[in-house]
Write a structure and sequence with these properties.
about 280 residues, mainly alpha, 9 helices
Length: about 280
């Protein structure tokens, strides 16, 4: 995710704006606005009754406030807004692999669920700092997953390009067998890194599920500051470990590709090719 990590306060503002906008544009508020326009137009132009037009406007405004307040109290609109918010931060339209795209979309939904729970629990005094950290960890987990997806896609693309362009040229018949064996070993190493990146995508999804369960436990233990600190500590440790895994896999993938095409220096991929 490219923007600054969200906090409970930020997400509350996002939810308020999003719910109000959705209610007035797509929900019951839009229907009420349509009826108000018809009524006000009729009472102003067709049957000129200024007093009734004012009364109708006041009534419509009161009903609009009640509708918006009702939507702000419901969880379903919050979840809808937060999913849209998370989806804007992590784009999936550039992911060609259906399985990887579905994994990222599922993680976006998990982030939204964590955010909904965090906002609900944040009203308890003393809980908001730990919940802010949990949100930041969830946000970075989704970002790490997106990096792993891009790395898997890029490695697979590089393999296809190298194979199609026939970069595995071997000079000297006496060295052909050994060079071919070395190239196969390097290609197997790249394939292992592709599989490793895909496995990392699933691992991040499982960590998000675990974080959601732990945040849900906090809802039942509202006010337990020690438990909330433990949850964020565990999430932080997992996040640190996954950062190291992503970095190590990127380095290993670059080294495997350099080994694979070492006889073709003009086609060696640069570091920028594989960084996300």
């Amino acid at each position: 995710m490219n923007e600054a990590s969200p906090t409970c306060a930020v997400l509350r503002r996002v939810v308020t704006r999003g719910v109000v906008r959705h209610t007035l544009v797509h929900g019951q508020g839009a229907q009420l606005i349509f009826l108000w326009v018809l009524g006000a137009g009729a009472l102003t132009l067709v049957w000129p009754e200024p007093a009734l037009a004012v009364a109708w406007t006041i009534l419509a405004g009161t009903l609009g406030v009640l509708i918006v307040r009702d939507q702000l109290r419901r969880t379903a609109p919050h979840r809808l807004v937060l999913r849209s918010y998370a989806a804007r931060r992590v784009r999936t339209d550039g992911i060609g692999d259906d399985t990887l795209r579905e994994a990222v979309e599922a993680s976006v939904c998990l982030f939204a669920e964590i955010a909904v729970k965090a906002i609900e629990i944040s009203v308890v005094p003393g809980m908001e700092p730990s919940l802010d950290q949990a949100l930041a960890d969830a946000d970075e987990l989704v970002a790490l997953q997106a990096q792993a997806v891009l790395q898997a896609q890029e490695l697979a693309r590089v393999m296809r390009v190298i194979e199609r362009s026939g970069t595995a040229h071997f000079k000297g018949r006496e060295h052909a067998a050994g060079a071919r064996a070395t190239g196969d070993d390097a290609r197997d190493a790249v394939e292992r890194e592709v599989d490793g990146a895909r496995e990392l995508v699933g691992q991040v999804g499982r960590q998000l599920q675990e974080l959601l369960l732990r945040v849900a436990q906090l809802e039942r233990r509202a006010g337990d500051v020690v438990q909330s600190a433990y949850v964020t500590q565990r999430a932080g440790e997992t996040l640190t470990r996954l950062r190291r895994v992503v970095s190590a896999r990127r380095e290993a993938a670059e080294e495997a590709i350099r080994e694979w095409v070492r006889d073709q220096p003009d086609r060696q991929p640069t570091r920028s090719t594989l960084t996300t």
